[in-house]
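From the methods appendix. Each design record in this collection lists the tokenized structure first, followed by the designed amino acid sequence. Records were kept in a plain field format so they could be parsed without special tools. The example shown here is representative of the layout used throughout.

RECORD:
FOLD TOKENS (131 positions):
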């Protein structure tokens, strides 16, 4: 009987896990974070941090990445929709929000919604910090 009750608990959990977005490997995550840190360090020494910059282009780096009303995954910030790998987005600024896979930055897109920066590769510079 213990097996049957365990199976009843685990079956829905396995079904849920199968429907969520693939999680990048730890090596991919470390590589992505290192790239972003390099971009920030390289920008720090230049005058570009002293002036407002134009929006930055980004590319979503995973499938089924949800974008939200605010920079966290709570029920108050219900997902609005989702993007798949390769989707190009425009980032107007970034802010600290809920930590996702060890990364706390969230990107505000030109459509007003937020996406976890963990799932975005910048392709046009370093986004400003939101005011």
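DESIGN:
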């Amino acid at each position: 009987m213990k097996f049957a009750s365990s199976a009843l608990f685990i079956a829905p959990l396995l079904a849920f896990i199968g429907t969520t977005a693939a999680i990048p490997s730890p090596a991919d995550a470390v590589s992505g974070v290192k790239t972003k840190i390099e971009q920030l360090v390289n920008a720090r020494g230049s005058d570009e941090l002293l002036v407002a910059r134009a929006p930055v282009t980004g590319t979503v780096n995973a499938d089924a990445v949800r974008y939200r009303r605010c920079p966290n995954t709570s029920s108050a910030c219900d997902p609005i929709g989702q993007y798949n790998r390769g989707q190009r987005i425009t980032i107007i600024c970034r802010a600290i929000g809920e930590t996702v896979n060890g990364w706390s930055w969230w990107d505000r897109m030109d459509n007003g919604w937020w996406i976890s920066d963990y799932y975005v590769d910048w392709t046009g510079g370093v986004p400003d910090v939101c005011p």
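APPENDIX NOTE: The first strand starts at residue 56 and ends at 60.
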